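Changelog excerpt

This revision adds worked examples to the README so contributors can see how folded entries look when concatenated. The first example is reproduced verbatim below.
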Amino acid sequence: MTDPSPPRKPIRAFGDCEQTIETAINRFKQVIGDGSRSQTDARQDTEIALAIHVLNRMLELGRPNSVHIA
């Protein structure tokens, strides 16, 4: 008998992870900019934390909701 289940997706290569990280960094730079606009360390920390939160939210919204079907 043949297996009626659909074929599985191939496992991603290690290089795909590196490319995903580079894409995220480039997206961060496009949205936020290359450098900090603040002068003090505390304000720079706040600015970076906010920028990271915004980027993570963008990535979360762009990621599809997947459900494992057994």
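The second example, added in the same revision:
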Amino acid sequence: MSNASDSIVQDREAGVGFAESPIIADIIETALFEDSSGYGVKFSTYFKPIPLNLLALVITIVCTPCSSPHTLAIADTFRD
């Protein structure tokens, strides 16, 4: 992966798909919709559509460099 912004754009060269990268969907799905007891399932009306502040938080997490080994291990879970 060349840089963090590559991981949030579906097709960087074509200039399309901002926030449609699979990593964004994977993070949201894992955090909120992993099973029937997840917040995304319990409170589904709040996530149709996905709120912009949640999207901004996920993009910030993906694009913010960090040095904590624990955080890096979590981030690696979502990378190809």
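Reviewer comment on example two: DSSP finds four helices and two strands in the chain. The mean pLDDT is 76.
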